[in-house]
Amino acid sequence: MATHLRIVVTLATLVAGGCSGDRVVVEDINPLYSSTEFFAAADGRDLKTTVLGNPFGTPGFDQAVTALMTGTPVGPKTRFTTTPGPSANRDYSVTLVFNPSPDVLAVNLCNVQSLPTAAAKRPIVVRAAFCAAGGEASAVSGYLDQTTGPADPKFADLIRDVTLRLFPR
Predict the structure, then answer these.
(1) Mean pLDDT lowest for which of 43-47, 103-107, 124-128?
(2) Do 29 and 5 contact (CB within 8 A), yes or no?
(3) Whole-number Å distance between alpha carbons of 20 and 136
(4) Alpha-helix residue ranges (DSSP H) falling in the chain
(5) Residues 155, 149: contact at Cβ < 8 Å?
(6) Which residue of 3, 42, 50, 119 could cross-link 78, Cys pair, CB 3.0 to 4.6 Å?
């Protein structure tokens, strides 16, 4: 039943993503993932977010990404940030990598500090993972063919879609 549900969700995601010019694929939702646990870990808290790579070469890219994530309604009121304060639960984090080179699966992002990336590569590829206690709780990948920068509505849609799929309810 879970496999059937994952296929339906993935197909719906691809159809919905096709309308906005991006595609987001749910790679893995670990059976141990719990929206209740995510809520308890992140509601009213900072959530450490690591952003690797910058497909536009623009300053402040990681802050633009985390601001888009914070503005996405994922359930709990969470502040995604690269500089978490004392409210952060250190057992939980998110890692996003843009245009990894060589490619990496999102499920392998929970224990990396850096990865080589290809800034100008198109389409833009983003891999993301929500990590709990050092292991992957959920993972998604997103792709975007054309965009002009982090302020482009198409890019904002990609980040919002990735964020929503990373934290299923």
Answers:
(1) 103-107
(2) no
(3) 28
(4) 2-20, 35-42, 61-70, 153-166
(5) yes
(6) 42
